[in-house]
Design a protein that fits this description.
The protein has three domains: about 5-90, Arc Repressor Mutant, subunit A (Orthogonal Bundle); about 95-145 and about 265-290, no CATH class; about 155-260, 3-Layer(aba) Sandwich (D-Maltodextrin-Binding Protein, domain 2). Helix content is about 45%, strand content about 20%. The two termini are about 50 Å apart. It is of the alpha/beta class. Strands 3, 4, 5, 6, 7, 8, 9, 10, 11 and 12 form a ten-stranded mixed β-sheet that branches. A two-stranded antiparallel sheet has the order 1-2. The protein has ten helices and twelve strands. The protein is rod-shaped and about 110 Å long. This is LysR family transcriptional regulator.
Length: about 290
């Protein structure tokens, strides 16, 4: 017979402190017959009586007095373990996220996670740093940049500019420098898209349609890229969500389809699957993404 050692010891300690089985069961928050059965099971397990049942009160036998300190230590340790388990559940999971996620989007993701008893703590970083943060264990997981076809989440990219809205795709060949003397229009790549599967593809199209090298440039920050677009006819490579936030007009690229791909990278354990399975739609909303798999 398997003995519930912790439950039996809890009943044993409670009855010994209360002096009766009825009062001890009340302290342990169990029915009196349950307390009696648990103590009887513990006595059978040890092969000795813990209480002298010849009186109306629960009087410890010499064996019971010897065993009581160990039983108290076991109950105290079990209570501490329960407390530690609750604290561990509430310990935030540090998650590296793209810099492109706004405070509101992160707050909404955090709220959705808390409803599932998942507590997140965010660390925003550019794409090159997020996987490194997992490797160095500065975060438990990261939403990392991958080619769109390999990602769990995908964010289509296009070109955004100020001025009046225009329908249809924008072809890069229309940005070739003519003889008008006007400054050449530039395409700004923000840091989140400064990854080979996006940047290099755009560079190849730039070269194939005859744009000048400087017409496609990587900005040091999204704010700097947006400032350049606000003050000129330049274009920002971005998502539709970002274009709306910045008050810009977004158009797809005519020569190719570009998209950010995102995947969960995590250290040993089940963090990646846990986030992907339980928070897929909420992470998608935070990224402004659509499903790819």
């Amino acid at each position: 017979m398997v003995v519930d050692l912790i439950g039996s010891c809890r009943a044993f300690v409670s009855v010994s402190e209360a002096g009766t089985f009825t009062a001890g069961a009340a302290i342990a928050r169990i029915p009196q017959p349950v307390a009696s059965r648990r103590i009887a099971a513990l006595e059978r397990h040890f092969g000795e009586r813990l209480f002298d049942r010849s009186t109306r009160r629960a009087v410890l036998t010499p064996f019971g007095r010897d065993m009581l300190p160990s039983a108290k230590r076991l109950v105290k340790l079990a209570d501490a373990m329960e407390h530690d388990a609750q604290r561990a559940k509430l310990r935030p999971m540090r998650l590296a996220m793209p810099d492109t996620c706004t405070v509101r989007e992160l707050a909404e993701l955090d709220a959705a996670a808390r409803a599932l008893d998942v507590f997140l703590e965010f660390r925003q970083a550019p794409p090159g740093e997020r996987a490194e943060l997992v490797r160095t264990q500065e975060v438990r997981a990261a939403v990392t940049a991958v080619p769109a076809e390999e990602g769990t989440w995908m964010v289509p990219l296009g070109l955004a500019a100020g001025g009046s809205p225009r329908a249809g795709a924008l072809h890069l060949e229309t940005l070739r420098v003519g003889r008008s003397g006007r400054p050449p229009r530039r395409i700004w790549i923000q840091p989140e898209d400064d990854v080979p599967h996006i940047r290099d593809r755009l560079f190849r199209i730039r070269d194939s349609v005859g744009l000048r090298p400087a017409q496609v440039s990587v900005a040091d920050a999204l704010s700097a890229a947006a400032a350049a677009v606000f003050g000129s006819d330049d274009l920002l490579l971005c998502s539709t969500v970002q274009a709306t936030e910045l008050g810009l007009n977004w158009r797809p690229i005519g020569e190719l389809r570009l998209a950010r791909g995102f995947e969960i990278t995590a250290g040993p354990g089940e963090d990646a699957q846990r986030l992907r399975a339980r928070l897929w739609p909420d992470i998608a909303r935070c990224l402004g993404a659509e499903e790819t798999t």
